[in-house]
C-alpha cells in the first residue's frame, strides 16, 4: 500500500483495520544471486538499492534475530555531513543528499528532521580548527556557519557559557544536519526491498561461509544451506566473527557505545548539540526525551550493554555543558556494538575472495551513513566497481599504509576513534 495523509485519516476513522504487513516474512530459498548477511540499516538499504538501482531482486537478507534489532535501533539517531577529510567528506555528503529525498523515495515517514547540528568550541585553537573544518565542508558543497557567543545565546540559551573550565567561545552550525527515527529507517528500507521481491529472512543465523576454488558458493545457516553467487557481509560489530568463517582476519575491534534517554520534557533542545571538550552530544526526540551519548567503552566487547564508569563520564560531560540536564530523570540506556577500524573510517570493498564483499568499520558514523552505505555497497556488488563517493574505503589501506584516513587525528588505536 501507499501511505498518504488521506489514508491515515481513513484508517483512523475506521478503527485502523485496513493496514497491511509492511514486508513479507519470507522462508529461505535454495539459491539466490546475492545473499546479504545482516538485516540492519546498511544491509536493508543495500538490498533496496540492489533492486531499485540495478534490477537485482533475487536477493536474500539473512538476520539472526529480527530486522533492525542491532545497531540501527541502538544509536542517537544523528544525521550530518560535516566530515573533514577527503574520502569521508564526499561520502557523507552523498549520504545526506539521499537522506533529504528518502521519505519521498520510500513513501515512508522516517521522521527526518533537519533541525541543525552545532559543534561547540572552547578555545582559540578549537576555533581555528572549526574554521578549517567549516571551510573544508563548504568546499565539498555542504553548509557550515561559524557562530559567535551572542549568536549561540539566542538559540542555545540553556548552556553554561561562563564556566571557568570550559568557557564556550562559539560553534559551527550545519543547518541541514539533524535526526531521524532509527526504527522507521530500517522499516522503510525493509518495506521497499520486500516490495521489489527481496526475501527478508529473520531468525536465520549464518554459521558458515562456503568457498570453493577461491570463490564463495553460499552460506550455511541455522535454517539450512543456501547457495549464492555473491555474499555481502554487513554485520557491524560482528564483522570480525563472520569474516572469520571465510578465513579472514579483519582490522576491526568491537566496542560498546552507550546511549541514554530521559523522561519526556517540554521542547527545550531544538538542535543537535555537541560538546567540544568532551565526547558528548544531545538532541530531543519527538516524544520529548533528551537523547544523548558520549565516548564508547574503551575495552573490546560483544556485549550490548555498557559499564558504570562510562555512564558517569557521559553524565559529567552533560552537566558541564548544560547544568539544567541534572534535573531530568534518565529512563533507560542501551549499548550498540561498534565496529572500529584503526583510522576511524569504514570499509566498503571486495574481500579478496571471489564474490565475497565487506561493509564494516563504521565507528561512530554508522547511522548517518545508512543511505550512502547501501547505495555504494549495492553499486559494488552489482558492478564489481567502487562507487565514487566510497572509492577510498579500501580494505588494503591497512596493509599498505596508503590512503589511511585518520578523521579524528588520534592515530591507530581503534578505541580512540
Automatic annotation (TrEMBL):
Keyword Lipid metabolism attributed: no
Catalytically driven reaction(s): sarcosine + (6S)-5,6,7,8-tetrahydrofolate + O2 = (6R)-5,10-methylene-5,6,7,8-tetrahydrofolate + glycine + H2O2; sarcosine + O2 + H2O = formaldehyde + glycine + H2O2
EC numbers, comma separated: 1.5.3.24
Cofactor requirement: FMN; FAD
InterPro entries referenced in this protein's UniProt entry, alphabetically: FAD-dep_OxRdtase, FAD/NAD-bd_sf, Rhodanese-like_dom, SoxB
Molecular-function GO terms, alphabetical: nucleotide binding; sarcosine oxidase activity
Gene3D superfamilies associated with the record: D-Amino Acid Oxidase, subunit A, domain 2, FAD/NAD(P)-binding domain
Enzyme class: oxidoreductase
Membrane-crossing residue ranges in chain numbering: none
Entry's localization field: Cytoplasm
Domain Rhodanese: 34-78
Keywords, alphabetical: Cytoplasm, FAD, Flavoprotein, FMN, Nucleotide-binding, Oxidoreductase
GO cellular component: cytoplasm
The keyword Nucleotide-binding appears for this protein: yes
GO biological process, one term: tetrahydrofolate metabolic process
NCBIfam families xref list: soxB
Cross-referenced PANTHER family: FAD-DEPENDENT OXIDOREDUCTASE DOMAIN-CONTAINING PROTEIN 1, SARCOSINE DEHYDROGENASE-RELATED
Protein family (similarity comment): Belongs to the SoxB family.
Name the UniProt record assigns to this protein: Sarcosine oxidase subunit beta
Source species: Roseovarius pacificus
